[in-house]
Amino acid sequence: RFDPLLGLYDVSYTLTLKENQNPVGGKWTRQNGFAQKLLTTRRTFQHILPFNATGLGGNAVKQKNSTTIVAEAVNVISLDAFWSLIRLTVILRGDAIPVPVHERDTNVLPLSNLAVRVLFDAPRIILGKRGRLVNLNI
């Protein structure tokens, strides 16, 4: 049922209910945030892959909190600093689980049966265009 969600996406636009929300990148890309005073957002991506396609789920069982994992999400935020001399990349990997029916129906805008929630792991932060300066999990 969730196969139509799979794909590699360049996130160029999002629609939010509240004016100051930023679902793409959160604190890393928020216009009034500290990060945007030093960094400029270069690109944002969201990849929805088949379950454990990256192998980073380790010995992941296809269940998390008694909910079936339907896909794997990888979000990438690429930022530049100091006139594009330094690149910072933030990568988030997580497991996508279906949004329960009772939550889909009580939303302000009803959600389709393809709606998922992603339970993200800790972010990986990479400094430098090739990741040689700093490459760490937080």
For the largest beta-sheet, the strand count, sense and barrel status come to:
7 strands, antiparallel
Q: Give start-end ranges of low-pLDDT stretches.
A: none
Shape: globular
Query: By helix and strand content, what is the structural category?
Result: mainly beta
Head-to-tail CA distance between termini: 34 Å
Strand content: 35-45%
Helix content: under 10%
> What is the number of E strands?
9
Oligomer: single chain
Number of helical regions: 2
Tell me the radius of gyration. Answer: 16 Å
The secondary-structure element order is EHEEEEEHEEE
Mean pLDDT: 76
What do you see in this structure?
- The structure is a single chain.
- The model has no long low-confidence stretch (mean pLDDT 76).
- With 138 residues, the chain is mainly β.
- It starts with 6 loop residues before the first strand and ends with a strand.
- Helix content is 7%, strand content 41%.
- It has helices at 34-38, 101-105; strands spanning 7-10, 39-49, 63-64, 67-68, 71-81, 86-98, 116-120, 124-127, 134-137.
- It is globular, with a radius of gyration of 16 Å.
- The chain is built from two helices and nine strands, in the order E-H-E-E-E-E-E-H-E-E-E.
- A hairpin with a 4-residue loop joins strand 5 and strand 6 (86-98).
